[in-house]
Design brief:
The structure holds two protein chains of two kinds. Helix content of chain A is 33%, strand content 31%. By secondary structure, chain A is α/β, with parallel strands linked by helices. The relative contact order of chain A is 0.14. By secondary structure, chain B is mostly helical. Helices cover 76% and strands 0% of the residues of chain B. Classes of the chains: A alpha/beta, B mainly alpha. The A-B interface holds A 13, 53, 56-60, 75-76, 78-79, 81, 83, 85, 88-91, 93-94, 102-108, 145, 148, 152 and B 2-3, 5-7, 10, 13-14, 17, 80-82, 84-92, 253-255.
């Protein structure tokens, strides 16, 4: 079941002085399935934030269709979604606890003080919950932003650049929270330009470039499309015996070869066994998301 | 209702921290206190002079507060992007605007009340005179300011604080001179002037209908119907203003 469907989304801006139409999003289509972590990838200015803002209703699309839980976005759908904007800004005069209490008032469901405290503890702000948000660091703002996004126990959570401004520990924690939400059956859509983060946590991705989706699919499938090389580590033979298979690298008493096809690898393995050598490891080196991303962009 | 209350209280708290509020309020209290210098020159009419001066000050400072804070109330939400995490929650735009109006009204009401209390205590301590009728005027001024708050909120849905501040001030002046406008339009025989004056008279708020300052100062009877008319007129006018504000704000996008 699709939680979100975006079909041929279009959005244009008007330049401030000449009122010239500027493209923000030209043709974005993708769907997010229930229970998955879906990543929107793209360089700055690709249209990720515009897409997310259109989904949550901050922007009005100029074309296309957005369906949330099978219907267009309306007030009742908002009860079931959580949203963390990019570089979130909050009321500086409130404390972290007061801020979440304020947001709790905006939902029809009753959110208890206990629940607010639990969420603040979960995001590591229990020590700062009675401090003014105006005194929070960027990382703390991101944490409180994540806390308000999950306050209503939403089914679908939209996070715009959630790792932005976080230190390595914070990023690790953010990933853990996202995995925890997934394990609870939540669906997560997030945008990022930090490829290793996406690679680590996303089930599926859509790569956006200049307002269009240029590639979409299951991450493991995208990356398995092409194996760059297979590294075979061998023991008990010398370089000369193996040089017919290509360049041989030595590391201590082990030898390594990089082969470009499965057939070559099979031939080498048979040859080593026949010559009395030992295969230590066979490791296929697949394309990284970064390489796929760059190749896709270059192809555009 | 829960969301309106939440937004209202948050707006009130935010307003309390506004430096403009502090400076305008302190100036108001100081000026009321300074009105003591009028006592020696008021020739036996000191309570009336002081009260008249005090009431005028309260009105001026209430208008200033409404204009300085009210016209920025939505602009700041948009500029600071705090609105992103509010309108993406299950909150209707109308609820958001009613909440903002509630918070602003609560803020202006609180300061107004403190200023009135200052006048009351001042006249009791220095003039040994308990002038209860200032609270009657407080009642009427509250409903005037409610309309002006609504005007400020409406204008801030589509203009900058400076523009909406100037227009709010202009509307306040017209609202206090509506009767003169009507009379003037009957005196001047220019059709275009009559048309504009009639439009302003009927379309813009009319504070002259509920202005009872003279009756209060000279202890004259006040038409009892006004006690019902002032809140009814004010609430209906605010509903009209918020309806337009909602229609305009719903069209807004948040880049």
């Amino acid at each position: 079941m699709n939680i979100l469907e975006v079909n041929h989304l279009k959005k244009y801006y008007r330049s401030p002085f000449l009122r010239k139409r500027v493209r923000a999003v030209e043709d974005i289509s993708f769907a997010v399935k229930q229970g998955e972590i879906f990543g929107l990838l793209g360089p700055n200015g690709a249209g990720k934030t515009t897409t997310l803002k259109s989904i949550v209703g901050l922007l009005k699309p100029d074309g296309g269709e957005i369906r949330l839980f099978g219907r267009p976005l309306d007030i009742s759908r908002r009860e079931r979604i959580g949203f963390l904007p990019e570089n979130p800004y909050f009321y500086r005069h409130l404390t972290g606890y007061e801020l979440l209490s304020f947001y709790a008032h905006l939902f029809n469901k009753h959110i208890t003080a206990k629940k607010i405290k639990e969420i603040l503890e979960m995001v590591g702000l229990e020590h700062a919950m009675h401090r003014k948000v105006g005194s929070y660091s960027k990382g703390m703002l991101q944490r409180v932003g994540f806390a308000q996004a999950i306050l209503n126990d939403p089914d679908f959570i939209i996070l715009d650049e959630p790792m932005s401004g976080l230190d390595p520990i914070g990023r690790k924690e953010m990933k853990d929270w996202i995995f925890k939400l997934k394990s609870e059956g939540k669906t997560i859509l997030f945008s990022s330009h930090i490829l290793p983060d996406v690679e680590m946590i996303c089930d599926r991705v859509a790569i956006i470039y200049r307002g269009r989706v240029v590639s979409t699919g299951v991450l493991s499938e995208i990356l398995q499309e092409k194996v760059r090389f297979i590294e075979v580590t061998i023991e008990g033979l010398d370089e000369k015996t193996l040089e017919t298979f290509g360049k041989v690298f030595r590391s201590g008493d082990k030898l390594m070869l990089r082969l470009t096809s499965e057939e070559e690898k099979d031939r080498l393995v048979s040859f080593v066994i026949e010559k009395g050598g030992r295969i230590i490891s066979v490791a296929p080196y697949r394309k990284t998301l970064e390489e796929h991303f760059m190749e896709t962009l270059e192809a555009q | 209702m829960k969301s309106i209350l939440g937004i209202g209280i948050n707006t009130f708290k935010e307003g309390l921290r506004d430096k403009t509020l502090l400076s305008v309020s302190i100036s108001g209290f100081l000026l009321i206190a300074a009105s003591r210098i009028l006592v020696p020159i008021s020739i036996g009419e000191s309570y009336r002079v002081i009260t008249d001066f005090g009431l005028a000050l309260v009105e001026v400072f209430s208008v200033l507060l409404t204009i300085f804070i009210g016209t920025r109330i939505l602009y700041d939400e948009i500029e600071r992007k705090t609105i992103y995490t509010v309108v993406t929650k299950p909150v209707r735009i109308s609820e958001f605007l009613i909440g903002k109006l509630f918070g602003l009204t609560l803020l202006v009401f609180s300061i107004q009340f403190l200023l009135f209390l200052t006048i009351f205590l001042f006249s009791k301590i220095y003039l040994h005179f308990v002038f209860w009728r200032v609270f009657v005027w407080f009642f009427f001024l509250f409903f005037e300011m409610l309309i002006l708050n609504g005007v400020a909120i409406l204008l801030s849905t589509f203009t900058t604080p400076i523009t909406s501040g100037l227009i709010s001030m202009l509307i306040y002046i017209i609202a206090n001179t509506s009767n003169y406008l009507k009379e003037l339009s009957q005196m001047v025989k220019l059709p275009i002037f009559t048309y504009i004056a009639n439009f302003l008279y009927y379309f813009l708020p009319n504070f002259t209908l509920t202005n009872v300052k003279t009756e209060i100062l000279y202890n004259l009877p006040i038409d009892k119907g006004l006690y019902l008319f002032a809140p009814s007129y004010s609430i209906m006018y605010v509903v009209f203003l918020l309806t337009i504000a909602t229609m305009l704000f719903e069209k807004r996008e948040f880049y």
